[in-house]
């Protein structure tokens, strides 16, 4: 499996795609982080920090007495982050993590790309202090069950899933609760969310950029008429379509 970004974009397209992804999934992530009690003075590790939106939120929550280490293999979008954020270019498969004894480790949309996911997850658990929380969030193909049969959206999403299966583990999310349990974590919890996108909104734009690029890269996920109908629908307000599911699982290191 590829350990690089599966979709190669120009800088601006990549930045916009990341902005739309954050708009789609950040509210759920923030809801879980809030429930886990992220607050002043905590030491946090944000892995696969992407565009830095969650690192910014963590910085605001932990305040000047806390720490946020933002880690990514590509740090080009992690500029101008406020204190107490520190940015670290890091390949989590082989490079040392920036410290340990964290109160929180959060990782989103990373493990599905890694063949070494078990070893990497072990490293995240080891980086927690006793009582620290690990929150892992990954994609899952369960959302295809929400597709309306016979629509252009179903056609495009199912073809996109077929291509993505060659690049990443699109069923990764459902494995997370067992992976955390097998590592001896306490307080295991899990949630699955399927975002719905209204045409013209950032969630719809995220799908247009992601699936649209797969369409270009493969020479066509579907015929051009189907693609054009799907694209038009996702630009039309008051049109609602289900997006890609995210599974969130969390657990606390014993002690």
TrEMBL record:
A Gene Ontology molecular function term of the record: methyltransferase activity
Keyword Transferase: yes
Alphabetical list of Gene3D superfamilies matching this protein: Vaccinia Virus protein VP39
Domain Methyltransferase type: 45-134
InterPro entries referenced in this protein's UniProt entry, alphabetically: Methyltransf_12, SAM-dependent_MTases_sf
Keywords associated with the record: Methyltransferase, Transferase
Cross-referenced Pfam families: Methyltransf_12
The keyword Transferase belongs to this UniProt entry's keyword annotation: yes
Lineage: superkingdom: Bacteria
GO annotation, biological process: methylation
Record's protein name: Methyltransferase type 12
